[in-house]
Structure formats: C-alpha cells, structure tokens
Amino acid sequence: MATDLDLAERSVLGSVLLSNGKILDELDFNPADYHHPIYETVHRTCQAMKTAGKPVDVVTVMGELTAAGERYDPAMLHQAVTDTPVWENADYYAGIVADAATGRRLISAGAKAKQLVDAGGDMPEIVEVVRKDIDNAQSSARAQPVEFLADTLPGTIDMLDSEVTAIPTPWPSMNELITGLLPGAVYVVGARPGVGKSVVAVQLAQTLVAQGAVAFVSLEMNRDDVNMRLMSSELEINMNKLMNRELDERDWQKVSAWLRTASERPLAVLDKPGATITDIKRFVRSVSRRKPLAGVVVDYLQLMNPPTGDKRPRHEFVSAMSRELKILALDMNVPVIVLSQLNRGSTNREDSRPQISDLRESGAIEQDADVVLLLHREFPGDKQYEIGMAVAKNRRGRTGSLTAEFRGWYSRIDEATA
Predict the structure, then answer these.
(1) Which CATH code is given to the segment(s) 172-415?
(2) Domain locations in the chain?
(3) Which helix (H) or strand (E) holds 234?
(4) Residue 170 pLDDT > 70, yes or no?
C-alpha cells in the first residue's frame, strides 16, 4: 500500500519529468533525500541530462538509464508522471521528502549514539560526533529564505543607528585601528616565544571579563599561573614576588581586597595540556550555560591535540582547528582570541619584524582570522621594554602598527606615553 511519502517521492520525480527538467533550476532538493535508491538514480540522471542540454522526459530518461546499464522498472517512471497532481507544486512535495529524510537521519544518529556508548570510549568525543550528526540531519539542500536588499536594509539601518557592540581593547591606539573586539570575530595574536603572547591573552581576557564570562583555554600555563598573571596585572605586584612567594604585608592587603571582588570576574580556565577541539567546545558551552559568555581565549593554537586516531598531517590538522575556532566564534557570537606561534623565517631576514606569512604551520590561520596582530620585541638593548604591535590583517578596516610599553614584571602591556 502506497504511503504519503511514496506519493510525495513519485511526485517530485514526476514534476521533473512533466516540466522537461525545468523545475530542476528552481528546486532546493538533495536527491539523497529519496528513501528509494532508484529514485535518486533517476533524479541524478535527469540533472545530468539537463546540464548537457538534453530533453528530459519519460522516453529520453528511459533511454539514458538503459544506456547506462541501470536496472529499473519502466512502469515506475510512467506511474510517477501519472501520480503527480501539479508539477508546479514540486517544492512542496520536496519538503515532505526532505522532512522524512531528516527523521531517518535523526533515528540513525540515535542508534549510532547508543552503539558508541555501549562500545565505551571517550564520552566527550562521542557527544561531539553525535552533535555533528544531529546538526547534519537536516538536508543541506533546503536553502535559507531568499532576502533581497530591500528586505535586509532596515536591519542594517537599525544597526547603524545603535552603538557599536565592540569591546575596547586595553590600548586606545589599537582601538582606532580595529574598533575593538567584535562578536563572531577571530583575533589571532602571533609572536615568537617569550615576546608576550600570553601577556596579551591575559590582558584581553581582563577586558572581556568586564562584560561577561570568559572561557580561557590555557594549553601552556596552569590555572595558578593564569591567576597570578591576573593578580600581577591588576594589583601591580611584581611577578617575581608572586612566583617566589615573597609577598609583603602591603601585597597581601591588595590580594585580600582583590579576592573579595573575585565574583565580579567570571573567568573560567581550562588548563588541560593537549586539549582537543572537542574538549574546548565542551568547555566553552559549559561556561556559557553558567553565565552569559563574553569571549574565548585559546593559548595557543599549535598546542591543540588531534582526536584519538586522527592521522592527518600536522598542517592539515592546524588548518582544520583554525576553521573550527572560526565556526565556534560564529556559533557562540563572541570574539575568540587565538594565540599562534610564528615560524623562524623572520629571524633569517634583515628586518626581523614578523610578517603574516610567518604564522606557523598553516596559511588557513590567516584566512580564517578577522584580525591578525603580530608582536615584536628587540632583545637585548635599549628597546627591550618596547613592544611593537602590528595589525597585519583587518577584515573590517585598516592595518597599521603601534609601539607600546612592555611591563613584563607586571604581566601587562600599556599604551606608550608621549
């Protein structure tokens, strides 16, 4: 007995045949959504014939299928044409078929989840696999509603009439270049070891935490190190005194007062060496469930580990992680600050200042970043307390550079005084 789905599938195919393939140009439909494999084969054959400029009807399609050696029932094509009520309603029929396909994929995702759980394994990775299966359950061919300029301009005008949502960085001259930290944007901070990447990371986290929760992923420092850098920066206590446990009475008074306001700084630290992208996503989502998320900091990209069994070359893996972090920024609608190592190419140049091409292991980092900030210091010399901060890429504005004051003993960088 035929079901509504059977009729809908035949009606999609019948619409293609009755319209001489014209409906293929208008139909948002993935042939993989058919429940019957032979329908998918026929549909793809029709698409190929339309692309080749051949007529698409029952007779020509039968000839094409026969020539290709496909096994099919000719009566099926005739029935598809006969059963189609109105071929102009093909998009409606396609929606029924697509919804049914989504349901099948969800059922499959549930069965796969049970199978993975029963087999044991790393639970966070299982959650991420199942989450992707669910996200991919809906047919990719079902397009978003089409909106023309007249439809979208009112929203743009409203945005222009509102305040900028960017969160200012600690450096006014930097804000003149990049405006600030914008939702959904990725900010890559690149430097060679010891120049000040982690100092920048902590300062930007301090800026973000004034607006909401911050998920700080530290793959190099443990949470105590991060906390001490925060204290050093905010309380102006020398890092050496903190590291060597040499606080005097005045320092302890500062720390005690600071502790009483700790709840005003919802900064959460993941200090798991070799964390995977699954670990990072799970951590970020956990933080966002506790408090409204203001931003994410990852220190640093090249220390992320591939999932178990991932055999991709290192540069391919880093490229994939760069893209995953960009998607995370868009999904969570917050700025994501990503620290990155530089290769040693700049050390062999006469001008040792880093260039965007020095980003280590992947050109995809440059591609995915909205802003690339490169840090540079001279060692040793009179300028060792100066730090160059160059905006090498700015998707939304101009590039440029500034010189700031590096105060490493307080784990901070300050705007240079005139």
Answers:
(1) 3.40.50.300
(2) 1-162, 172-415
(3) helix 223-235
(4) yes
